[in-house]
Give the backbone structure.
Amino acid sequence: MHTNQKHWSIVEYLHETVKNPNIHIKGTTSYYSAAWSGTFEESVVRYLYGDAYSSSQWEPAWPIDQLYIGSYVCIAAEAVILMGGNNTHRTDWFSLYPFIETIVESYEGKGDTVIGNGAWIGMRAMIMPGITIGEGAVIASGAIVTKNVAPYTLVAGNPAKPIKTRFDEATIARLRQLNIYDWEESKFKALQSFITANDIDMLEEQSYLYDQSVLVKK
């Protein structure tokens, strides 16, 4: 899906570089812009347990959080995806300190983190544990995301709050119904000029015509 053309940034395609079995990459198009930092696994995904270092040091006493990244996801430099629940700091205890005697009890899981298809995470944004970012959402630079983000919604600030939706509700519903990120690559490429536009009527029409032409060929 990508070429060897020169680019202003260092584009790291995640399916080519990610080795951690707890990180699941959909397709071959999602990337990290690593111009001013280390690799995606070195500088973006921060595990309490589950990365190469921690796995070589000890056995986890609880389930490992999984990270799911959809297709066509764009992650800007120095973003942070924080994994590992509460990182063994219990806010409902008098002391937040992770004493080794109660380390297992001090951990509270937040669940898996999911970054939906077509999302864009801005520079130095931070995604807290257990967050789901919807399809086509935009996380502004420097945002601290503490709650789930709805599809095609732009959030910003600390804590991140919805600023606007990229399209009206009806258009978003129609886009989600089309499931463009689950299309076969041949269909996606054929209709790419309609995807990189904002005419939902035309996109629906061209999708229908393409599907009909495929049926005729069969």
